[in-house]
C-alpha cells in the first residue's frame, strides 16, 4: 500500500513543473481560440486573476506586484506602437 502511494505521489506534478505545464495549457487553449476570443478572454479574466492575486498580498507587496505588472504590460503595448 505504501509503495502504491509513493508511486502515485511521484507521478503527480511537482511545483517546479507548474510554470512549464501552465504554459503548455495556455498555448493549447489560446491556439484553439480566435483573436477576438483571446482578447475577450484576457479582458475578462485578467482583472479577475489580478483581484485574486492582490487579495493574498499585503499593501507593500501589492504595490510592488502592480508596478512590476504595469511595467511589463506597458513594455508589451509600447512594442506594438
Q: What are the main properties of this structure?
A:
81 residues, mainly alpha
Question: What does this protein structure show overall?
Answer:
The protein is mainly α. It has a domain at 33-81. The chain has 4 helices and no strands. The protein has helices spanning 2-11, 18-31, 35-55, 59-80. It starts with a helix and ends with a helix.
Write a short abstract of this structure.
The chain is mainly α and 81 residues long.
How does the SSE layout of this entry go?
Blueprint: H1 2-11, H2 18-31, H3 35-55, H4 59-80
Give a short account of the largest sheet. none
Beta content: under 5%
Shape: extended
For the secondary structure, the number of strands is 0
Indicate the radius of gyration in whole angstroms.
Answer: 18 Å
Please bin the fraction of helical residues. over 70%
Gap from first CA to last CA: 60 Å
Query: Residue ranges: pLDDT <50 for 5 or more in a row?
Result: none
Q: Please state the oligomeric state of the protein chains shown.
A: single chain
The H/E string reads HHHH
Q: Total number of helical segments? A: 4
Mean pLDDT: 84
Structural class: mainly alpha
Amino acid at each position: 500500500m505504501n509503495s502504491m502511494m509513493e508511486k502515485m505521489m511521484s507521478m503527480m506534478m511537482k511545483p517546479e513543473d507548474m510554470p512549464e505545464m501552465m504554459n503548455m495549457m495556455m498555448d493549447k487553449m489560446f491556439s484553439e481560440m480566435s483573436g477576438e476570443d483571446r482578447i475577450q478572454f484576457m479582458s475578462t479574466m485578467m482583472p479577475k486573476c489580478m483581484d485574486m492575486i492582490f487579495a493574498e498580498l499585503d499593501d507593500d507587496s501589492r504595490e510592488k506586484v502592480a508596478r512590476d505588472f504595469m511595467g511589463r504590460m506597458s513594455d508589451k503595448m509600447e512594442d506594438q506602437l
